[in-house]
């Protein structure tokens, strides 16, 4: 079973660590409970021995003025796939979905995608301009923006290329890599409509161009109807200022639509009467089909789900018996109404339990609690949204589009759980 | 022909530095903070600092005292390797000369950078590089007063450069004009001036809206492209490494491996002008003049056979006459009509497949998942 020796980087417990038998060492806190025989007879040393933390004083209140996770969680980090892009300055990394629960993504774990690195912006020097087909072209300071009535809303943000590396088949072993270009946080910001109304929209306006202040001056065209519907200009995420890599001090929130449109470091909004055909909506973020034609303006992120545990980076280490199968579901069309889970590769399905808040265009958490008999599982999840869309199979998507679309791959994912608990990304008949 | 006959040639080549009395890097009071800004021109290709790896160009850690062309894991030009074999070692003098005119010093170098024209830029860059690159003689070379010569400046606005000189004054000093009339519901924010809108409103639409006055020829574009674009995009637009391919790829869009270029895929020429002007060269955005951008755009039309005359001049007057061949092949989003979405019926729950399901493909076979053990494996696909 041991295929390669060597250390385990800092995944704990990683799939390889598990394979090489090192998982026990990594899981020192739970190892004792699994010890058979003599140790059990004498009692669990986690109980019978007095631990350092039970005897000696810990750090005082100011040891970490801005707190950080426990050192035992050091493996829970964003990761990149170096071969995917030319340079880390214009690249992407991935949210460790397999280590998270609930529906909120911690700020420091939200995946990153930049086109010219992370802009470092002094908020005192940041401006938001509105120009184009408006009565009064305006400039706002950050202070101005914070004087508008504001709202708090929870939304998922998914990169249109999430799962894009899986079009040709199972490739990456971990839901962090296959599905980790998604996060979900509470945004605090000003409804975009309020800002546009402040400038006064001319009747001829139909499109909005959003522009960032970074060295890519990232731009996207957005239909004005969407801009006036539910978009926000946000300055906080999960209660604190936006992280630099998420657009500090200001980003656009475009609920349910592709992440690339959520322009970070937002500095300008222009109203026009036609789309602007920017690089990110022509040469990129258009979906090439089998026949050589391409779809453009594929804005909505379709209904999608994935089982986050068990998954290749989160193998089953406890053997048979009670097993929590859990995952995430989301849709750009609104709420998730149901998630079904299959244990046999999509032959038979049972409806999972949705837990926690069910909010429009936000992540939903599902669970299926089973009594695992230790036999092989082919795990799948299938989400259905409130508009009635059912998450399609990968084969159905390929039949309709071919394999060169890059974007909008929301096909049903299969994880194979073997009898020894190892999990692998597979494709099934 | 040997470019560097032993020590003699190196002494001769770098005699220019000696004439100035001092090695270039120390000729003027060098400011490493200013050098950090100069390095923006380099960083798309060269990494430096902790964990720096080779990119398009070699990493620069320990470059002071390093023999030219000597990193084992970087593929240098033949010319650079030979220079090293003949004794070229990077120090203030040699690196300073090289940065001022790479191809004048090493004919055949891969580095497609025109060179730093200002001696001051060279000196500042060297001072910064000495500080950042570590290595044997870096610490000894550091000038103690350099650090305190100027406190770290506040982050500069990326747009400061193309604007008028006076806009570089701290924005706190700027007094906005008083609004004549109140606006909106809250009367928050203030009216943008025409100059402010002009400074940021640089987008170009397919119908030509937004094009600035100007012009540039294919041959002028080739010069700019060769110096500032070719290091990533290739001399003929073929792309280096995973950097975007810009030319060719015609007739490949329905292939197994389509090549999406300006010529084969992009629907509108306006996007080329808009994007080059706002974001290129990578790491030195907004540094090209409007005429330069017309010239580069013209050259990209030439590389893609849309125009064939090297004397062709693209301008705001003839711009919209040129269409890219793939424009008709873009269509609206019709995902909802796909079979799996069109039928929004209740999905099957039991016995949905005829027999037991079998595994047909495994990710482990490819083994391109990043971890400690497969650093060199490349998968397929892209995020953009």
From TrEMBL, chain A:
Membrane-spanning parts: none
Gene Ontology MF terms in the entry: sulfite dehydrogenase activity
Record's keyword terms, sorted: Oxidoreductase, Signal
EC assignment: 1.8.2.1
Oxidoreductase molybdopterin-binding domain mapped to chain residues: 115-276
InterPro entries per UniProt: MoCF_OxRdtse_dimer (IPR005066), OxRdtase_Mopterin-bd_dom (IPR000572), Sulfite_DH_SoxC (IPR030835), TAT_signal (IPR006311)
Domain of life: Bacteria
All copies of domain Moybdenum cofactor oxidoreductase dimerisation, residue ranges: 298-413
Signal sequence bounds: 1-34
Protein name from the UniProt record: Sulfite dehydrogenase
Taxonomic source organism: Pseudohoeflea coraliihabitans
Gene label: soxC
Automatic annotation (TrEMBL), chain B:
Annotated ranges, domain Cytochrome c: 30-133, 216-304
Entry keyword Kinase: no
Regions of compositional bias (Acidic residues) in chain numbering: 139-150
Name of one Pfam family that matches: Cytochrom_C
Keywords, ordered alphabetically: Heme, Iron, Metal-binding, Signal
Signal peptide as annotated in the record: 1-29
Annotated stretches, region: Disordered: 134-186
PROSITE patterns: CYTC
Protein name in the entry: C-type cytochrome
